[in-house]
Each structure stands twice: as structure tokens, then as C-alpha cells.
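re: that complex we talked abt at group meeting.

here r the seqs, copy pasted straight from the sheet so there may be weird spacing, ignore it
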Amino acid sequence: MFNKDNKLERFKDAETIIGASVKVKGNFQGQGNIIVEGALEGSLKTNANLYIGEKAQVVANIEARTAIINGELRGNVKARGYLAIGETAKIFGDVHYGEISVDKGAVINGQLLMLAEEHKRGESKKTEEKENELEK
Amino acid sequence: MHVYIYDDYLNKSRYNKAINRMEIRLTDLGLNGKIIRLGGIKNIKGTVQNEVKLGAKTIIAVGNNQTVNKIIGAIIDTDIYSDFQKKTLLGIIPIGDDNSIAASFGIKNEEEACNILLARRIKKIDLGLVGKHYFLNQASIQSSGTILDIDDYSLEIQERGEIRIINLLSNPKEIIKSSPHDGLLDISINTRRKDQTFLTVKKVKITNPNEKLIIDGVLEIKTPVEVEIMKDKVNVIVGKNRLFE
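got the structure back, here u go
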């Protein structure tokens, strides 16, 4: 899903791409992988992976299985699996995660809250099962 | 029974050679059938509907994108549509320019089209719907100032560029994937900033007071207007080199 540079393989894996010239308003809900490079106001939810680009401006509560954040986010983020916060990220809100990595330079203005260990295990098992199914 | 519907522009002498080649090939393959020339016919709908009623197994559009759209327009949303969907296939023989629909189905020229008709590889194809107008390929509009309303959210685009609502891709060089039988429309937005937006929807409302929506490169429609997808509306004979699975 993620390549060496921690980016989604553009256009190959992403079902939804919000380009830099686009502003989304409202409750955006997707089943597949999402890349956001533009602006988004409201809420964003996906059962898959989410990539927020360096120049993206997001004012929303967001929820994903796995997320990489490199842009500005004003709102809470919940990543049930892995959450990567890049050096250019600015987060103003609470951060819920299963696993986390934070690069030097990232700004986080909110609480860091690890999701329950049991919940995390359940999620990883589900994820593994899904991935195994996909591989089959 | 095969029914070949020749578009009126094929009366021009420059198309004689192509038509001769096609007719010889059809005879060689044993695919002869009834020929209807739209040149002298005012009631296209009535003519096409009558052929379906008479039990045509295949209706073949001989011409270009507009010929295909004329035939689809004559059948969809009419009393004979259910008969057409159950018993009749749509074939295409492209002659001349403006044949992106045939290209999408992997049909390059008239001779190849004859071989494809013989092979009878069939796919159920969705149709896009804008108001009362159906389309196979895509609808497009200038992006600057356009608002797209989808489900519970909206998209605003300020940069100049193009928004395309795609059912069936027409360019083999496209990097996006699109399927004309997944029950979804693909929205692709390309702007001058060279960024790309891509998402799939079932229905979208398009609003731009200064621009019109263009369907299959031909028909212009004022906005606001809703575009939606109608799943598996037509059974089409396609080539193996089509631009979708």
C-alpha cells in the first residue's frame, strides 16, 4: 500500500483523489484508499488508507484504518491501525491511534490517545484476514 | 435477423469505398441482413422500434458516435425497450471520424467490426443519463466555478480546467481506470495546475451558471443538471481489444 517514501502509490491504489484545486465541503465517506491534496471541511471517513498531502488543508474529524498526515489538520484524527505524522504535519486536535510514528518538526496541538490494546489486536487480526483474502 | 442502420452522412461518395469493403466482408462472413438508410427517413425512432418489434436479433449502427446515440435514443425509455434488452444486441461499424464509442469497444475500423460481429462477444453496458439524454462515453464541463453536489458533500473547483463524468473511456492512453458495467460514474478533474482529482459516484448534480455540460462531445445542456448512471442498459457486441475488462 505504501511505498518507500511512505506515500500511497498514486492512481494505482487510490480510489479517490482530491486534487490541490478542489475544495470539499460536507461529510465525505469512502470505502477505498483516499488521497487528499486539496481542502476539506466537514468530516472524512474511510475503511481503508488515507494520505493527507503536504499542502492539504483539512478542517474535519477524520477516521481511517491507516493514515499518513503531512498537511494541516484542524480536527480529531482516529487511525485504528498505523498513523504516520510527517515533518510538515500540523495537527490541531486529538490523535487516536493503534500504532504511531511522529517525524521531527511535526506540530501536534492536542492529546495523543492510544486505542485500547485489545481493540488494536482485533483490528490487526481483521486486517491480516482481509489482506490474506485479497492475496488469495 | 441483422439490421444495419446506415447514418445519413454515409450517402456522400467519399464513404463509398469503406461501405463497399464492409458489405463484401459481411457477405463473406454470412452476416448479411436488412439495410436501412437514415437519409430518407424522418421518423428514426419509429423505424428502429419497428425493427425490434419484427424480431431483429442484432441492430448494427453503421456510422459514428451520433449514429449509436440516435439508435439508443430511439429505444431507451420506450415500450419496446424490455424486448430490446432481452432479445436484441447492439453492434457498431465505425465509418469516418468521431468514433470514440467504437474505439472504446475495441472496434478500430469497418473490416475489424465485421469480424467482431461474427465473434459476438457480448457485454452489458451502463448508460449515463442527463435529464432525458443518455450517453455512453462521457459528459464534460469547464471546471472553473463549477460545483458538484454528491451525496452528503460538495466539490468546488476554482481553477480552469475540465471536469469529465465518465461512463466509458474513449482514450487508450488514459491513466485512470473506468468500467462501463460497474454501475458507477467516474469523475475526473484536470486543471491547469496539473493536479488531478478522481472519484466514483452513482449520481452527481452539476452547477455552473456560466458553462454548459457537453454530452459525448456533441450535445450542450444548461446547468444545474443531474447526471446519473443506469446499470446494464444495453447489450453490446464488443471487441477483445476494448478499453475495459
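couple things i noticed - Residues 14-135 of chain A form one domain. Confidence is low (pLDDT under 50) at residues 8-12 of chain A.
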